[in-house]
Amino acid sequence: xxxxxxxxxxxxxxxxxxxxxxxxxxxxxxxxxxxxxxxxxxxxxxxxxxxxxxxxxxxxxxxxxxxxxxxxxxxxxxxxxxxxxxxxxxxxxxxxxxxxxxxxxxxxxxxxxxxxxxxxxxxxxxxxxxxxxxxxxxxxxxxxxxxxxxxxxxxxxxxxxxxxxxxxxxxxxxxxxxxxxxxxxxxxxxxxxxxx
Length: 196
Description:
Helix content: 55-70%
Number of helices: 9
Strand order of the largest sheet: 1-2
Structural class: mainly alpha
Oligomer: single chain
Strand content: under 5%
Distance between the termini: 18 Å
Order of helices and strands: EHHHHHHHHEH
Radius of gyration: 18 Å
Largest sheet: 2 strands, antiparallel
Number of strands: 2
Number of domains: 1
């Protein structure tokens, strides 16, 4: 069976946190971070692919759920530290975002018993759609940007399409990398380990 390479996994976790912090680091350098006025690829990140990878590969399910939440929390604390703005780090619809991350992990369990490229693709696409639907519903329901009307909900989803596109691209880039021989190594059979 293939197991995650610890060094590769650690590097990807660091990269995920850096991706989460990058727009705020750029803001400190004077680059505008407003999603409508910057070319920064919002939602292009290895965090959601790591959720699927963890669900498929980690022995303990609890770690699969806790690891991405820890990445998000570290990112949120980093945003607060970098920007000095608690409202950028901790916002009204944040619990829905965290719930969406947990739902993405749950989608990753599709690939747990059999890691075929078809199952990984279904998990990636399904979780991207689920994250888009749930997190943007939370933005509409709990945020202050959109009116609490049907038109406001539709506008929220329409405005989020570029973010969804970037999520799909990140799934297409990071899932093949995570499930490649670069990130995984073959574990020794139990009998061979005992003999050694």
